[in-house]
Amino acid sequence: MDHIAAHNQSSKVAMPPTKLGNTTPNTLHQRMSEIVPNRLSDIRIIRTKYGKGNLGNVTVDMAYGGMRGIVGLIWEVSLLDPEKGITLRTHSLPELLPRLPRGRRGSEPMPEGMLWLLLTGEVPTKEEALGLSAELAKRGVVEPWIEDVLDQCPKTLHPMTQLSYAVNACQHSSKFAKAYASGVPKDTYWQYYFEDCLDLIAKLPLIAARIYRNVTRAEGAPPVGRGLSVDVSLDWSGNFARMMGFESDEFDDMLRLFLTIHCDHEGGNVSAHTCHVVSSALADPYLSFAACMNGLAGPLHGLANQECLLFIVKMREELGDNASNDQVEAYVRAIIKSGQVIPGYGHAVLRKTDPRYTCQKEWAEMHLPDDPLLKLVGQLFEVVPRVLAEGGKVKNPWPNVDAASGVLLNHYGLKETNYYTVLFGVSRALGVLSGTLWARICGLPIERPKSLTSEEVVRLFGPEVSPKM
Ligand code: AMX
């Protein structure tokens, strides 16, 4: 298999130099500037040696079937293994989490460390991660008119719509769009793209916190106004928590974990792929990420965390706190019989329990062992996979990332389920913008797969099997 050979061989091409005896912490931009030329040279070698390698055949069913199994994308920052789950720059989540740097406060990793890793391929030192944290805090400003626009949104406008709206509006300050319009050379695009990515990631806590404040304000109360700003002494996640109005150290840590583990799931999922395809037309990071958020807002993708908690809460209302597994099973069967999906279960690529579910469940068992909703999460795990596996239709009956996250958020008082996907989106910015920035660094062209009509399928494979068209 050519592609496996390519994969094995690729580990022999020169990788970025490791940092030796460096006393002054690198900035992310410095480190990227060192890494980019080496990596581009690696990719030139890979393409020269393995460019004609065959990545597999495409069948008609695959084209009708959501392109499952078609390998047609390069996404440098993460890779999903159906059995083991996500690897971020080759590190599995359980292996990586203990290695990522902690901040000045808290015991969970700073998402800034994950961002550094995704962009550079290197686990940063604590000083580097703290430096990036300070840099993001400095960049974390939003034009006042965008804050006013958000304040004018009706409380009932879905928070994901508000997020997408605000991110699109931030495009007003895109450095890449301005640089492109002024005709800068192609090989410098990534530098402006990098600036926009960091600016956008830095603005997200302020934007998302403002949305939270506005949708949760009391009936008749005025919107936030000019009251929110980033505190440069706090990390990215701490700032987000504080601006939303949460003050406890345990909430901060839960949010750090949430924002770290939701960041990326390789390039073919709806949110990442949308960001990738929009950016391939050289739309700037703001336009690309806003589109990505619109995809994440779908109930089969990121909205599933909202759906999942609603499902668990409703089940509790109907079954009470002492439901037996038999009662849970009857409830689950009735939902499936009515034609609905069980949110938080199943996946297009994964074929085992999602490690992101496992790490959230373990965290919950340690910090909120007596939460009645956690008990139901455990019972669903005992019941749902067996029920979904019956009949063999569902390809993956195991829990995904969304099966436990809502219970954590709800426990700490973040009860507005329609806000949950915004948190997912803030985290996802780290991964999709890193992957998309690398696509720009590599100069990947505008994306344009070929499509067919059903008549064309019949023409290609008929006429003896042709239906009447
Ligand atoms: N409950 C009930 N039925 C399910 C199911 C679930 N959790 N997961 C899959 N199925 C059904 C599908 O609806 C499909 O039925 P159909 O043939 O009648 O249309 C059949 O099983 C085969 O589907 P599949 O090939 O196993 O899954 P898929 O790749 O088409 O879809 C996913 C994957 C995630 C959309 C699906 O498993 C699902 O709808 N899960 C529930 C929603 C959810 O948790 N989404 C979040 C995923 C993670 C994320 O992106 N955040």
TrEMBL record:
Keywords: Transferase. It comes from the Eukaryota. Belongs to the citrate synthase family. This is Citrate synthase. NCBIfam families: PRK09569.1. GO terms for biological process: carbohydrate metabolic process; tricarboxylic acid cycle. Residues 1-27 are annotated as: Disordered. The keyword Metal-binding does not apply. It holds the Pfam family Citrate_synt. InterPro entries: Citrate_synth-like_lrg_a-sub, Citrate_synth-like_sm_a-sub, Citrate_synthase, Citrate_synthase_AS, Citrate_synthase_sf. It comes from Gonapodya prolifera (strain JEL478). GO terms for molecular function: acyltransferase activity, acyl groups converted into alkyl on transfer. GO terms for cellular component: mitochondrial matrix. Transmembrane segments: none annotated. SUPFAM superfamilies: Citrate synthase. The keyword Transferase applies.
